[in-house]
Amino acid sequence: MAATENHYIVPALQKGLQILEMFDARQRSLTQAEMARTLGVSSSSLYRIVQTLTTMGYLKKTGSNSYSLGSQVVSRGFSYLASREIVEIASPFVTHLRDSTSLSSHLAIREGSEALYVFCALALQRLSVNVPIGTRFPCHTTAMGRALLIGLAPQQIETIYQGQRLDGYPEPAPQTLPGLIAMCEKERAQGWSLHYSDYSTAIAVPIRDFTGNVVAAINVSGPDVLMQQEGVKERLVITLKKTADDIMQALGGNE
Question: Do residues 100 and 176 share a domain?
Fold first, then answer.
């Protein structure tokens, strides 16, 4: 590595990642002293790094001074792998959805209380709603996000939003937890979610795996002047549900 590139390295982050790399199938637990010895530094110099990794769930304290990999390493890894598989399978269907409706179409997965957009088929017309890949929105503030919540029981939604404030976002996003649960119940019964924002409308439906769990959601979105024309919403819901069924079959899920 060139000397100039070394200036951009963050030593604490580098050491944190090196600590995570120390664990494998044979090395499931390490003390802070063992981590320090492997890195050739003092144990005290790693204290804040280890505490940060533990607080964030990437390490788990298993003894008075021993640690194993935490649940975040597993959940983030599986979330990434699952999203990759879903994108590879669903992207042709989402692209076809864009082509058949002439509207922007997106694919998202849920991470905690956020909807993470992992694929986008951009509409070509000038008045379009395109959300870049990697964008995150609070689930309760979008049709896509609430479609991802459709498969959860009220108690699960309460757990996800425990300690979080829902107000502060413009309506029609629900402003309270009971309001969110009631909206999710209504949208679960009809099988689709709808949201208005900034002169645009989005409609979304969930994607389920073979166990029936919601693993992703797809949507179409466009300007109100088009989306609110008579009969458009009803036709789009039918098309979205058909596309979701096709994706679920490709994933090996239930219709």
Answer: yes
Helix axes 32-39, 11-21, angle to 10 degrees: 110
Pairing of strands 114-121, 200-208: unpaired
Across 162-190, average pLDDT? 92
Specify the pLDDT at position 51.
92
Q: What is the CATH number of the domain that holds 87?
A: 3.30.450.40
CATH number at residue 65: 1.10.10.10
Domain boundaries, position 170: 75-251
- pLDDT for the residue numbered 1: 46
- With 60 as the cut, is the pLDDT of residue 81 above it? no
Res 212: pLDDT: 84
Instruction: Please write the tens of the pLDDT for every residue from 110-158.
Output: 988 999 999 999 887 666 677 888 899 999 999 999 999 998 999 999 9
Say if residues 220 and 214 touch (Cβ distance below 8 Å): no
DSSP state of 156: H
Residue type, 133: I
Where do we find the tokens 């935490």?
70
- CB-based contacts of 209: which residues, under 8 Å, 6+ apart? 215, 248, 251, 252, 253
Are both 51 and 145 inside the same structural domain? no
Three-class SS state of 241: helix
